[in-house]
C-alpha cells in the first residue's frame, strides 16, 4: 500500500464523529490537568503536537512520522518550562484516542511515530543539546530518502512542521495563558460588544464594497486590455505602501476639502470603510482575477454560439465557475480589513457610528479591534488586552470557518482540484 493510499485511508478513519469526540475529550483532560498544576505551557505544547500529528496522519505514515517527530523536537524547547513529561504523555494520550480507529499501515505509522518521538525525546533530555532540534528532522529525512526516495514528501513534512511550529506555538501559548475569569469579564463588557460588532461589521462592508467594484475590474484584467500593466501596478500599490501612509492618502483623497467635501471621513464610518478597502482591495481583485483566468474560455464561446449574449454568458457560465474564487477573495479582503491598524489609526482612531444599524440604532463611539487592543495595552493592562485579543481571535476564527464551510462545504483541497 502506498503512502498516498494510506493517507487517504487515515483521513477517512479520522473523519468519524467518535474520533472527533475522543480527541476533544483528550484535549479537555489535558487542558484541565495543565491548569490544575498551574502550567498552561504544558497544554500549549500538547495541543500543538497533537494537532500536527492528526494532520500528519492524513498525509500517510511517513508524513505523520515526520510531522510528529519534528513537532516533538521543536517542543523540546519547553524543557526550560519544566514540561519534559508532555513529550511522553502527549504521544501516549494521542495513541489512546486515535489508535483504535486506525488499521494496517496507518496503525504501524502511528506506532513508529510514537516510538521515534519517545526515543528522540529521551536522547534530547539526556544530551540537553539544542543541536538535536536541527539535526533530528535532517536525519529523519535522510533516513527515509535512503529507503524509498520519497524525498519531496519527507522534506515537505519536515520543513512544513517547522513552519507550523513557528506559527502555532505562539498561538497555542497565547490561548493557554488566558485567565478564564478575565476573559468572561471582558466578554460581558458592553464596550467590548460594541468594539467586536464594529470589527466585524465595518470589514464586512469594506469587503462587499471591494467586491462590488473589484470583481468587474478583475474580469477585465483576466481578459486583457491596452495599458493593463499600469492598472495592475495601481491595484497592487497598496501592498507596498506603508499603511499609515495609506491612511494619509485616504484623508487627502476623500477628506475635508477633497473630491467629496461633504463625505464624513475623519473618525467616521465612511472613512473607516475606505481605509479598509484601500488596503484590502489587492487581495479581492487578484484572487478574483485568478478565478476568472481559470475558467475555460471555450465554455463562454460555446454559450455565445448557442445564442447567449455576453452578459448572459458571464452570468450563467463564467460567474458560477469563478464564484468560489470570488468568495475566497472577499474572505481574504475581510480578513485583511479586520487586522488593519495603520490606516485605521490615522483615519478613524475612534469611530462614531450607529449601533447596531443606521436609522434604528443609537449613536456610539468605539474603536476598531486592533486600535482597541492597542489602547488597552498602552493603558497599562496587558492582561485585559490579551483577553480582548482572545475574544477577537475566537470571533474571527468562527466567522472564517463559517464562510469557508458555506463556500466549499466539506470538500478537501484535493477534491476541489479534481476535474
UniProtKB/TrEMBL annotation:
Presence of the UniProt keyword Membrane in the record: yes
Transmembrane segments: 13-35, 81-103, 110-139, 151-175, 196-222, 234-254, 266-285, 387-407
Main location group: membrane
GO CC annotation terms, alphabetical: plasma membrane
Keywords of this entry: Membrane, Sulfate transport, Transmembrane, Transmembrane helix, Transport
Domain ABC transmembrane type-1: 196-403
Topology in membrane: Multi-pass membrane protein
PROSITE patterns: ABC_TM1
Record carries keyword Transmembrane: yes
CDD domains in UniProt: TM_PBP2
Record-linked Pfam families: BPD_transp_1 (PF00528)
Localization in the cell: Cell membrane; Membrane
Record-stated family: Belongs to the binding-protein-dependent transport system permease family.
Protein's name according to its UniProt entry: ABC transporter permease
Naturally occurring in which organism (per UniProt): Halomarina salina
Lineage: Archaea, Methanobacteriati, Methanobacteriota, Stenosarchaea group, Halobacteria
